Amino acid sequence: MCTLEKRGGLFILTLTGDDQHRLNPTLISSILSALSKAKAQSTSGSALITTAQGRFFSNGFDLGWAQSAGSKKGAQERLSQLVELLKPVVAALINLPMPTFAAITGHAAAAGFILALSHDYVIMRRDRGVLYMPEVDIGLTIPDYFDALFRGKIGAASTRRNMLLRGLKMKGDEAEKRGIVEAAYDSEGEVQEASVRMAEDLAKRKWDGDVYAEIRKGLYPELCAKLGLTTKAYATPRL
């Protein structure tokens, strides 16, 4: 499950417990509900930080839940269901009217990496945790909106190739060098402190949230098309 805490203008969304935070219908629904609450309560001085307790940020879809369907066909149907259930979460983050930060203090794999990458900024711990897309290793294809997110967020084709076609596990320093994460730090505390500092710095700019979200969507037209998001024109000049 997850919790949502409001600290001044900051919303802190935390995946709770010490498990792997695998994304099943219950957790996905909880995250989507938290994002909806943050959006409803947002102001011009808001920002969102998503983090997690334990050794994992998220280890992706709950394959155990999918396999518990009892047959190969049932497992495939449940996995397809998870793909569709996560799409509104990615859409909600891309459409959220505030800056967003993923504070990664553990592993972020597969759909868990996608969850992190859906934020504007990713801050990572360098001494523990990797970014990893294991689909080629476990025999799964990549959903179309995952592909679009990768193309929109990771500029170097060679980096995308190595992560998707080689199953490369990338640590914090390398991810920072490749521009996937904003910064990497030595401890969980430093990641959390840096995330709050960055979020507060942007929140105090008091940008119009709707304008911010529309500019963000304009950066990722292919992803927005896959997610069914449309853009709108806003004009709230502060000159």
From TrEMBL:
Record keywords: Fatty acid metabolism, Lipid metabolism
Coiled-coil spans in chain: none
Molecular function GO terms recorded: delta(3)-delta(2)-enoyl-CoA isomerase activity
InterPro entries in the cross-refs: ClpP/crotonase-like_dom_sf, Enoyl-CoA_hydra/iso
Annotated GO biological process: fatty acid beta-oxidation
Transcription regulation found in the keyword field: no
Pathway: Lipid metabolism; fatty acid beta-oxidation
Recorded GO CC terms: peroxisome
Catalytic activity: a (3Z)-enoyl-CoA = a 4-saturated (2E)-enoyl-CoA; a (3E)-enoyl-CoA = a 4-saturated (2E)-enoyl-CoA
A Pfam family hit: ECH_1
EC number: 5.3.3.8
Protein name: Delta(3)-Delta(2)-enoyl-CoA isomerase
Source organism: Durio zibethinus
